[in-house]
Amino acid sequence: xxxxxxxxxxxxxxxxxxxxxxxxxxFNMPNLTSVHRLAxxxxxxxxxxxxxxxxxxxxYKIQNLDINVLDVHFVPVxxxxxxxxxxxxxxxxxIQIANSRNIxxxxxxKRKHWMLRMCDELNDFYPREIAKIRERSEFFEQTxxxxxxxxx
Length: 152
Known about the structure:
Elements: E1 4-7, E2 13-22, E3 31-34, H1 35-42, E4 51-63, E5 66-76, E6 85-88, E7 94-97, H2 111-149
C-alpha cells in the first residue's frame, strides 16, 4: 500500500504511495491502492482522523539525459476527485487514476463524502463484475460441453 510511512510532530500518520508519470507516454492508468486496504486503514478500532493515505505524484519529462520534474502533488487520496478515478478489477477492486494526464485535485473534499462516493462507485462496479463473471462462466460451460463431445 505504501512506499514509505511516517508520523509527524503533531501525531499525523502518513502512508505515502509514490507515483511517477512520464508525460511523454501516451497512456498511464496507475493503481493507487486496494479499496479493501483503504477501507481497513480508515475503518477500524484504532482509526484516527490523523491517519492519511497520501500520494506523492511526480510528473516529469526526459530531455536528452536529464529528467525534468514538471509538477509534484502531495495529496491525500480523499482530495482526488472521483471524476479522475476509476476502479479496476483486481482483488476487491483497485482505485486507479483513470488517466495520469488528467489529475483533478479538490482540497475541499472531505474524507466522509469521498468514502461514501467510493462505496457508491463499488455498488455500481461489483454488479458489472458479477455480470462479466457469469458471461465467462457460461462461455466455459459451453466450451466444456464442446470438448466432452470431441473424440479421443
